[in-house]
Design a protein that fits this description.
Keywords: Membrane, Transmembrane, Transmembrane helix. By secondary structure, the chain is mainly alpha-helical. It has a domain at about 30-65. About 55% of the residues lie in helices and about 0% in strands. It is built from three helices and no strands. It has helices spanning about 10-15, 30-60, 75-100. It starts with 7 loop residues before the first helix and ends in a 13-residue tail after the last helix. The model has no long low-confidence stretch (mean pLDDT about 80).
């Protein structure tokens, strides 16, 4: 039997075999590393683009500039006084009850 490169039996040895795993469930390290590399590259491109954008905005000093002035919000004096009064009454009630002994029934002792 004579072998030559034109022979179909030798060509089949060097041709990439078709994968039997059509659903891509089988563990293949080359495919897994390829996916990891592609994800890393996409994240790298996104991060570089974000850093370039931030650098340009910071150079122009437009990142933290506001377009319109925000109105100054003030306190309503009546609400502040009612809140202070509420907490003062709570503090007074606490001081009043702090000295009282709790009225607890001991179930181990008969009446």
């Amino acid at each position: 039997m004579k072998f030559s490169l034109k022979s179909k039996s030798l060509k089949g040895l060097f041709r990439p075999r078709e994968t039997k795993d059509a659903l891509k469930i089988e563990i293949t390290p080359y495919r897994d590393w390829k996916v990891v590399g592609e994800v890393f590259f996409v994240l790298l491109v996104v991060l570089v683009a974000a850093h370039i954008y931030l650098f340009i905005r910071l150079q122009d000093e437009t990142l933290f500039a506001s377009q319109e002035e925000e109105p100054v919000i003030g306190f309503k004096k009546e609400r502040v006084l009612t809140t202070v009064e509420y907490y003062q009454t709570r503090a007074a009630k606490f001081e009043e009850r702090k000295g009282e002994k709790p009225n607890v029934v001991d179930p181990a002792q008969p009446r």
